[in-house]
Amino acid sequence: MSQEENTPHEELNRIIESGARLGININQEDALQWLTAIAAREESEVTIDEKAGVFGHRVTMLDFSPAELAHFRKIAEVVGFPDEPGKVETALALSGSAAQSKIQRYPGDADYFERVNIIAPTRKEACDILADMMHEKSTTTIRSSTYQLIEVKFGNYPFPVLSEERVISKGSPISWKPGEIVNKKKDIILADGSHSEISWNQVAQDPGWCKLDWVFADNIHGQLVNASNMLDVTWEAPDGSITPLDGYLDPYFQEVYLEAESIPVFSKLSKHVSSDALDDYVLALEKEIHKYLTRDLNYGKAARRMYNVFRLTGQYEEAAFLRELFDEPATILYQVWSLIRTIDDCFHPGSSINKETMLAQCDRLILTVVSSLEGERETEIVRQLLRLRDILSREHVQEELSPSAEAARAELINIVNNFFYEKLTGHPKIKLYMEDMSKPD
Q: Whole-angstrom Cα distance, residue 286 to residue 282?
């Protein structure tokens, strides 16, 4: 019997068998409900949760829990862009692990995705409006007692440049630090070694990949989180035509939109998504899977992307297995790993994130590791985290934080990698898929 002919109960039995063999506890009722729901045929791809006031692709909505919605909406007040009637329309969504909160009990970052539709007579004017919007958002959210801006991606390099003795090719995205954004200029080194500068307005007509990154501090819970907003910007011309400013209109397979009021702009833009969007999305994910299985070895990141491929391409048994795998205690180390990076990002002179919050975050990391691990690895990681905490606690920091952070992070990612590799290769179908994805390009 082919996989397409398997019933949810038959697939569930196979998942239970695989889980038992690999020591994974399967929530049978939840897994069966998910398999039944995802296999159902529905007329509309988009599902609306009227009670929570959110919407998204029906497959994505199966994995979303509104439990932390108030928390995410509070951050959204900072990272999101406002509408301007007759000029700018927006639809803000959660993406990544934050949009899969029902299965990923330990999400790392708060990732947002925002559709920004600019109504203007010409493309140039639309790009100028975007440049002004991003500059205003960046300069007005540089710092507060609860957040600070880390960097902004805006524009592409019009020529090759040197950065840390590495050549950055023409067309690569430009990363701007807060001070550079305020001054609207960035000092650069050209490929021939000479010094020059590039201005914010100079790159406005080729905005490219637009993304803003912050660190937020939840002083009530003593927790830090990296928050980002990736923009998909379109220009709506007077004739009603829609043109993506970066040349590509992103699909909506992994977003949960936070406000039902944005359904009209979402509906207008989604009509222009390519009919090949699903195939393109899967292909892009598989390129990343190949990268994380070969060049940049990271089985946890590969597993997250495999889950999205499997659930969107009808490989429900494999998807359901991974869905349960993400709920295992050891996967909490992915959150710990992410939060170490967050501390590293905001620990520097002039930081608006207070030391007490960072210390509380470090204490949470230590407790998390102690509750999740045992033996020599626990001892070593706790040792690294205690060293990290010691550096944080000093009144006058005399050394860089990064070496300690990197040491703890390297230990953590190694443990997570080993955990995922063992579980992934223990499932015959997933093992075959990984072998296929690991073949040379």
A: 6
* Tokens at 71, concatenated: 């928390």
The Cα–Cα gap between 363 and 324 comes to 28
Q: Which structure tokens are listed for 139?
A: 């300069």
Q: Residue 361 in contact with residue 215, Cβ under 8 Å?
A: no
Question: Beta-carbon neighbour count of residue 438 at 10 Å?
Answer: 12
Length of the chain: 441
What pLDDT, in 10s, does the model give residues 224-279? 888 999 999 999 999 999 999 998 899 888 899 999 999 999 999 998 888 888 89
Q: Among 13, 144, 17, which Cα is nearest to 78's?
A: 144
